[in-house]
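As a warm-up, study this chain.
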Amino acid sequence: MKIFDYDRYANATWSSGIVSLVAAIRECKGRQESFLTREPAVLDKLLEIAKVQSVEASNKIEGIVTTNARLKGLCEEKTTPRNRSEKEIAGYREALKTIHEHFMDIPLTSNFILQLHGLLYRYAESGIGGRFKNVQNYIQETRADGTNIIRFTPLEPFLTPQAVDALCENYNRAIDSGAVDPLILIPIFVADFLCIHPFNDGNGRMSRLLTTLLLQRSGFVVGKYVSLERKIEETKETYYEALKLASVGWMEDKADATPFIDYLLGIVLSAYRDFESRVAAVDEKRPAIEQVRQAVKRTIGRFTRGDIMELCPSIEKSSVASSLKKLVESGEISVHGSGRGTFYLKNN
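Now compare it with the structure written out below.
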């Protein structure tokens, strides 16, 4: 039977890779305050970009999508959701907004997790929001031939409330004692949460919301300015594989969360590096075309105007478009497609 005892990780030995990731993230956190005091308007723009990307990506992982225009309207609360997908997108917006605005006032308890799930389904008519599962659920895997298999069977419904209570109590106790680094505890908590799979639906999105909440409560606020959900969506196969490995032997209390710790810390460090490079580019006060040129150099493969706008938050949309046009004319990049399908490639 699974036992939630996070104190046992106090004397655990971690791989050199995980130790290096923790050290690198803590170095970024040490520089965090200096970056957060610069260019408030740029930080606000980064926050808005990250919010839209987080809402889009976390839902997209679950196959919940809408058009770019509708997504933007929903995130800005200027559009009324008109179907099931848009209602769930609007719910994620509400849950994420609550975390960003009140993370230090939110206690990690079963009651709060239920409230957060209720926000996620605030606009849905399904009636499942804010309630633990009442039927057994299964984590399935689709094989290469298209067939589905049951990869993991989570806890039974009648065991779920008690398990979530134990999960939160043990996490809070370990955090309060300071015996285990929160950068280690947070991925372990998320992996355990997903193995419990406490809801009929919305477990993946809830796990990503809780990741953002726990990181911010421990002082790692990068998820407000660079979308962790987007980085996860871009590495979705690796994400699922890490979770799969971390679930092996979970019910017998023999699971090794190391693969998921390694994965999630890599996501957080990547976000910090993006955050620092974007704010640093603003500080250097380079001309718009030079900022765009440097942003292009950081891209891999095809990129869009939106990608460059994300990397250059201090530049207006028209200046990005003008700079890209000049780089095309100079032969540094080439443009392909048309309309919404337009993308660019670097020329050798």
